[in-house]
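Below: protein 1.
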Amino acid sequence: MRILLAFLFFLASSFLVNAQDWGHNYKEAITVAQKEHKFILVNFSGSDWCGPCIRLHKEVFVLGDFIQLANAKLVLLNADFPRYKKNQLSPAQQKINDDLAERYNNRGVFPLTVLVDEKGNQIRSWEGFPSSTIDFIDEIQQAIKDNQK
């Protein structure tokens, strides 16, 4: 019985965690978005100090509706700004994230989620943790629909 339950749990979780991984390279995200005609969702986070950032990744970006949308329409890009020394980024990654922040998050808002088209043009942004996860996902979907060619 335990083996059956473990198998069913594994099977269910494999369907839920089927979204592509969050990338960390803007140029690669642009290339993939252009090739696959997708939008880029950039998330600015402080993975080791920002409570709302951590919640966003643990409570919203793992939802089935979000994963389904991400698989179909999005390239996911995370620009992380950890503070603890043990989590420091490589200088190259820090430069990539700094460049992203200069372009899309020059006010230093955390978390900030930005929807970008395949050419790198900002379409919409969301500050902080959403008051409604369903509305947040719906707003991303609507912004995509409004900007599809």
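Below: protein 2.
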Amino acid sequence: MSLVSARDVAHLRARHLDDSLALQEHLGGAGTLLDVGSGGGFPGIPLAIANPEIEVTLVERNQRKSSFLQHVVMALELVNVDVINSDIRDARDTLSTFDVITARAVTTPDQIWAWCRGLLSENGRVLLQMASPIKEVLNDGIGESHRSSGIGWINVVRRAVS
């Protein structure tokens, strides 16, 4: 059972696993992590496995993908992972705050920021995995781009200090 395309199986490690784990260096001190639009579980599942001390919440709106994530969590006995089958826009009111929020190929950076900035803890950050550095100005957010040790760029967005 897999949600990775057949053509991606040969590149599973580089395109998905290594790329997910490239976020490790930006987790510093995080106790909670929200993965928005988790899809096949990247980057949330690899980060949960590598960081069992972090409570990970996966939010996925597609029922099939969400069921797959539930199956993976149970099969791997990941006690630090919770799966929510919902659109992030609908789930926001039921969620607490998070130290780190990840999003990979979900929507534009300004849209993710609009949906998620209210879910960040005081010193929280949003980690966006993208093909290029962030260029747009985000309402009350400051972004910095880092070349990923995986693929592309990791764009770290924090609230602007007033």
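The mean pLDDT is 87.
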